[in-house]
Amino acid sequence: METTYQARPELESSGQPAERKNIGSLERILSVALGAVALLEGIRRGGLPGVVGSLGGSALLYRGASGHCGIYERLGINRCHGNRASLLSRDGIEVFETITINRSPEEVYRYWKDFQNLPKFMKHLSRVDVREDGITHWVVTGPAGKTIEWNARIIAELPNELIAWETLPGGDVESKGSVRFEAAPGGRGTILKVLFMIRPPYGKLGLLAARLFRKAPEEQLKEDLRRLRQLLEAGEVATAER
Amino acid sequence: MKAITWQGRHHVEVSEVEAPSIVNDRDIVVEITSTAICGSDLHLYDGFIPTMQKGDILGHEFMGRVVEKGKAVHNLEVGDRVVVPFNIACGKCYFCEQTLTSLCDNSNPNAVVAEKVYGQSGSGLFGYSHMFGGYAGGQAEYVRVPFADVGPLKVPDDLEDEQVLFLSDILPTGYMAAENCQIREGDIVAVWGCGPVGQFAIKSALLLGAKHVIAIDRIPDRLQLAATDERVTALHSDKTDIQEALLELTGGRGPDSCIDAVGMEAHGTSLGALYDQAKTAAYLATDRPHVLRQAIQACRKGGTLSIPGVYGGFVDKLPLGAAFSKGLTFRMGQTHVHRYMGKLLDLIREEKIDPRFIITHRASLADGPALYETFRTKTDHCLKVIMHP
User: Fold this and answer.
1) What pTM, to 2 d.p., does this model score?
2) Are residues B93 and A233, on separate chains, in Cβ contact within 8 Å?
3) Whose CA is closest to B11, among B39, B61, B52?
4) Which residues make beta-bridge pairs with B61?
5) How far apart are the first and last CA of chain A?
């Protein structure tokens, strides 16, 4: 039983012990690469060394592909922590950020619940349309000026505490997540916690490229939340423009 | 408009640039009547502060008249005369509400950069690199001042510019340094560094009840100026064993509190891209490690070390063991200017302090580049430079 703090407990992968990932992304890539080479070499050589090579290669391949290593598990090694965005994870990318805002949870919740406010602090969000049936339509301007659109619905709501949503099928993006509003201790206002999972629109390789050339999703979210705090506390977004 | 712009190491120019205008509702635009060069501007001039870009307008000690105001500014009118704090504070965040305005949560649009280096970001600053917001500074004819309902202090016309200009930075800095010493009646305070901040720290320590101030520097002019008050003893750091002298002057106890008004001369290269610069974090090594070290060594047991001098990065060989053994308190940080301006204006009005004594050079903006060099080399008895655009 883990006693040390782990961020993002809600999106930890559950499932059978044998399926639980305990290898980091880079190692998995290496495992797959080495495994493939060993397997092909093993097949080419034949004979006893060939068999050994093939078996070893297959094991490495499997381990890399699945993300689970039996030996690591025996040894209690888990190298899957700390991947802020696990590219090869089945569930897509997990994003979590938190910020403390010097306003009451009621005020912060009210501002967020009015989705028309979101484009004011979410840099890439161009537009949110709220339809009568509660479905919302989102338009984001992605890298290279492409627009990404999807519909979403609220799946859980606790006034002044929680808004949870998921995207509907057919959109450019698959996502689900939540915003939590907690009263901060000592009269410090509200602790905002934003947590979501997103499967990116261009596939994993596209996301890798996007990540290399622009800010990671968490950093983008952090900037957005900073602007939210500026709007709610100071009434305007700070700028050095003249 | 004309402005002094950074162009590289030891290279500033007077440039013709676009004048500012109102961007946000809480802004004002100020027509600058007086502006000064700060000791910390020299770090920019020497190329030691990362995230500077050619063309950046310098200057964070300035005052003038309001010429334009945003819709949400009701405490000031066009034509009002104001002194502006060097840090930009929103007035509404957790830190501002406690008058810890140099720690404002909301005024640095590039907070992510400072956060990478320091863990969290403090307030934005005028004219002090993109890590601190990239705001245009006040060594210019005009400047845009954000959050004008919180920052600028209105000053009466019967006090001239030179009497109140230093409320923008160095007078509150010296005062806060002395206040941080938690001076009790009868205390002896040692001040390393007799530049403008040190001079004000000495005066403030006396105002706050110190019995005796010991001023330490290498430059005879500055020591002489500090020692004009009979309650101040000057020590020349190259000619004196400081530790020995301090013990002798304090009955063997050591000073009750020590002020480091020297800070750290930053060494390091200027880095390229804005975001990456902060991530790799320039290694800033102290030029004079012996100041902090001396202060720790000399301070009496249970005493206080007050650090107004700017430090940017990492220090080698800090005798933390000595500090621990003696149970020292360290107090430091960028000045919460807003907290002290009003009180200090009153002290000026009551003639308890006259800040003009540190001014040695007066010029126009056009002379700025030459005076940066004079100030840096401390030639011509230079202590403080004021410019009138």
Assistant:
1) 0.82
2) yes
3) B52
4) B36
5) 55
Report helix, strand and coil shares of chain B as percent, to nearest 5: 30, 20, 45
**Pairing mode, strands A136-141 and A125-130:** antiparallel
- B98 to chain A, any CB pair closer than 8 A? The answer is no
Contact between B92 and A235 using a beta-carbon 8 Å cutoff: yes
Q: Which of A25, A147, A160 is nearest to A80 (CA)?
A: A25
| Closest Cα in chain A to B28 | A242
Burial of A124 (0-12, 13-18, 19+ CB in 10 A): middle
A152 near A138, Cβ under 8 Å? yes
Rg over CA atoms, chain B: 20
Record: contact B90-A233, CB cut-off 8 A: yes
CA A225 to mean position of chain CA atoms? 16
Question: What percent of chain B has a predicted confidence (pLDDT) above 70?
Answer: 93
Q: What's at B117, amino acid-wise?
A: V
Residue A140: strand pairing partners = A125, A148
- Nearest Cα of chain B lies from the Cα of A14 at a distance, in angstroms, of 33
Tens of pLDDT, residues B75-124 = 999 999 999 999 999 999 999 999 999 999 999 999 999 999 899 999 99
The answer to whether residues A45 and A52 touch, using CB atoms and an 8 Å cutoff, is no
DSSP state of A114: S
For Cα atoms B295, B298, B299, give the angle at the middle one, nearest 5 degrees. Answer: 80
Q: B135-156: string of b/e by CB count within 10 Å (b at 16+)?
A: bbbbbbbbbbbbbbbbbbbebe
* 3-class secondary structure, B14: strand
Angle between helical axes of A25-45 and A47-66 (0-180°, round to 10): 160
Rounded CA separation B370/B265 (Å): 21
State the first-to-last Cα distance of chain B, in angstroms, to the nearest integer: 10
Q: Write down the pLDDT at residue A219.
A: 87
Q: Across the interface, do B23 and A189 touch by the CB < 8 Å criterion?
A: no
**Among candidates A219, A236, A242 on the partner chain, residue whose Cβ is nearest the Cβ of B25:** A236
Residue B254 contacts residue B234 (beta carbons within 8 Å): no
Q: What is the DSSP string of A191-215?
A: EEEEEEEEE-TTHHHHHHHHHHHS-
Helix H or strand E segment including B193: none
Task: Judge: A242–B106 Cβ closer than 8 Å, yes or no.
Answer: no
- Write the pLDDT tens digit of every residue in A90-122: 556 788 999 999 999 999 999 999 999 999 999
